[in-house]
From TrEMBL:
It comes from Rhodanobacter aciditrophus. Keywords: Isomerase, Manganese, Metal-binding. This is L-rhamnose catabolism isomerase. One of its GO terms (molecular function) is isomerase activity. It comes from the Bacteria. Gene3D superfamilies: Divalent-metal-dependent TIM barrel enzymes. InterPro entries: L-rhamnose_isomerase, L_rhamnose_iso, Xyl_isomerase-like_sf.
C-alpha cells in the first residue's frame, strides 16, 4: 500500500510516546475495571470505528466575503485523495472519502478507483450538486432545482442525480446524499405545497433508478442560500419526503443545519425510532451552518448524539448509519482539522460506550433527574484519550497525529508541488 508519511518517522514518533501511553492505558483500564468495564472490549470498538472524510474538506473554504487560499491546497480529486490518505494513515479512523459531483468528477472512474485503492481508500456516499450552475448546462438553478416550477429544470436536476449514482456505482459507493438549497427569499415567492410536492415527485424518480443495495439520504438545512423559506428545512420535511419515497430513502442529519439550541440528539432518536435515520454530516456550530470542526464548540452535544446511537445499537447491533464529516476550513490546515475532528467524533462514540445504561434506566424509571444526568456526566467526564491513542497505535497510525504530520513536512512538500492558483484567490464560497 502507498503511504505518503514516512513510516520510519511515524515509528520514531510513536516510540517516543509509547511507554507514557502504556502507563496511561493501564491506569485507565484499572479505573474502568472498578466499574466492571473491560477496556479491551472498548478498545476493539474504538478500532472498528470509522467516519468518511468529505473531499471538499481538504481544501480551504471561503466565507461569503473572501477566500484566503492555504498553502499547497489540492488542485484536483487525485491530490484530494493524496491528502485523505494522509488523514487515514495517521488517524486510522477515516478509510473512506465522500465525493461531491461535479467538483470531483473524474474523466476515468476506473482510474480514480485504482488511485484510491493504492491507498486502501474507499468511496462513501456520493453528493450531488444542483445548488450551483455548471458549465454547458441548459437550465439555471437560480430559482431552484428538484423543486423548480419548470419541469425542464427539474428533469435536468433529476438526470444529474441519476448520473451521480451511476458514477458512484463504478466507484463502489453505496449511497447518494441529496441536499438542495431550494427555497425562497421573500414571503409569497414560492408556493409551499407545490414546491414540496415537486421535490417528492423528483426524488421518487431518482429513487426508482437506485440500485437495490443503495440508500438515498435526504439532507435538511434550516436556511441558506434561501433566507425566508427552504423546502427541506427541517427533519420533519426530510422524514415526510423519505417516508413517501421508499424504504431505502432515509434522512441525513448535518449537525450545523439546525437553529441554535435545537435538541439534535432528540431528532436523532425520533428519526431512528421510525427507521429513518440514515446518516450524519458531523461538524460544529455556534450560529448557523458554521462548518466548524467537530466537538470544537459543543462536545457535550456530540456525546449526547452518540449516547442515542449507542442506545439504538444495543437493541439493533447491526445498525450503522453513514458517518461523514462536513466541515470547511478558513484558518486551520484542513488535514489537521479533519484528523482532529475524526478523533473528536470517535471520542464521543467511545464515551457513549461507557455510560452505565442499567443505572440510567433505573434513574429514568424512578424519576431521579439528578442521578440520571450524573450518570451521563460520569461517562462524559472520563478522559478516554489513552483508548483513542492505543487504537491508532495498534492500527499503525500515529499516537499523536498532528505532531507527526507537522514533523513530516507534508504541507511544505505540497506547497512546493502545488503552487497557488492565482485565479482562486478571489472571494466566494469554495
Ligand atoms: C450544505 C452542505 C451539504 C453540501 C455541503 C457542501 O450546507 O452541508 O452537505 O453538500 O454543504
Ligand atoms: Mn452537509
Ligand atoms: Mn452545510
Amino acid at each position: 500500500m502507498t503511504q505518503l508519511i514516512n513510516n520510519d518517522l511515524l515509528g520514531t514518533q510513536n516510540q517516543s510516546l509509547e511507554s507514557g501511553l502504556k502507563s496511561d492505558y493501564t491506569a485507565l483500564g484499572e479505573k474502568l475495571a472498578r466499574s466492571d468495564i473491560n477496556i479491551e472490549a472498548i478498545l476493539q470498538k474504538a478500532k472498528a470505528f470509522s467516519i468518511a472524510v468529505p473531499s471538499w474538506g481538504v481544501g480551504t473554504g471561503g466565507t461569503r466575503f473572501a477566500r484566503f487560499p492555504g498553502q499547497g491546497e489540492p488542485r484536483n480529486i487525485y491530490e484530494k485523495l493524496d491528502d485523505c490518505s494522509v488523514i487515514q494513515q495517521l488517524s486510522q479512523a477515516t478509510p473512506a472519502v465522500s465525493l461531491h459531483i461535479p467538483w470531483d468528477r473524474p474523466s476515468d472512474p476506473n482510474e480514480l478507483r485504482q488511485y484510491a485503492d493504492q491507498y486502501g481508500l474507499m468511496f462513501d456516499a456520493m453528493n450531488s450538486n444542483t445548488f450551483q450552475d455548471q458549465a454547458n448546462q441548459e437550465n439555471s438553478y437560480k430559482y431552484g432545482s428538484l423543486t423548480h416550477t419548470s419541469q425542464a429544470v427539474r428533469d435536468q436536476a433529476i438526470a444529474h442525480n441519476i448520473d451521480v449514482v451511476e458514477l458512484g456505482q463504478k466507484l463502489g459507493s453505496k449511497a447518494l446524499t441529496i441536499w438542495v438549497g431550494d427555497g425562497s427569499n421573500f414571503p409569497g415567492q414560492q408556493h409551499f405545497k407545490n414546491s414540496f410536492a415537486q421535490y417528492i415527485d423528483s426524488i421518487k424518480q431518482i429513487y426508482a433508478t437506485l440500485p437495490n443495495d443503495w440508500n438515498m439520504l435526504l439532507e435538511h438545512k434550516i436556511f441558506e442560500p434561501a433566507f425566508y423559506s427552504t423546502v427541506i428545512q427541517d427533519w420533519g420535511s426530510s422524514y415526510l419526503a423519505a417516508k413517501e419515497t421508499g424504504e431505502r430513502c432515509l434522512s441525513l442529519v448535518d449537525l450545523g443545519h439546525h437553529a441554535p439550541n435545537v435538541n439534535i440528539e432528540m431528532i436523532v432518536s425520533r428519526l431512528a425510532q421510525f427507521g429513518k435515520l440514515g446518516g450524519f454530516h458531523f461538524n460544529d456550530s455556534k450560529y448557523g451552518d458554521d462548518d466548524l470542526d467537530s466537538g470544537s464548540i459543543n462536545p457535550y452535544q456530540l456525546f449526547l448524539v452518540f449516547n442515542e446511537l449507542t442506545d439504538i445499537q444495543l437493541e439493533n447491533p447491526s445498525y450503522s448509519p453513514f458517518y461523514m464529516l462536513d466541515q470547511s476550513h478558513n484558518v486551520t490546515d484542513p488535514i489537521e482539522s479533519l484528523m482532529y475532528s475524526a478523533a473528536e467524533v470517535q471520542r464521543a462514540y467511545v464515551k457513549s460506550l461507557l455510560v452505565d445504561r442499567k443505572a440510567l434506566a433505573h434513574y429514568q424509571q424512578t424519576n431521579d433527574p439528578m442521578m440520571a444526568q450524573a450518570t451521563l456526566k460520569q461517562a462524559y467526564n472520563l478522559d478516554v484519550e489513552p483508548i483513542l491513542q492505543m487504537a491508532r497505535f495498534q492500527s499503525n497510525g500515529a499516537i499523536d497525529p498532528i505532531a507527526c504530520y507537522r514533523e513530516s513536512g507534508y504541507r511544505q512538500q505540497c506547497a512546493q508541488a502545488r503552487p497557488v492558483d492565482p485565479n482562486k484567490t478571489g472571494s466566494g464560497i469554495i
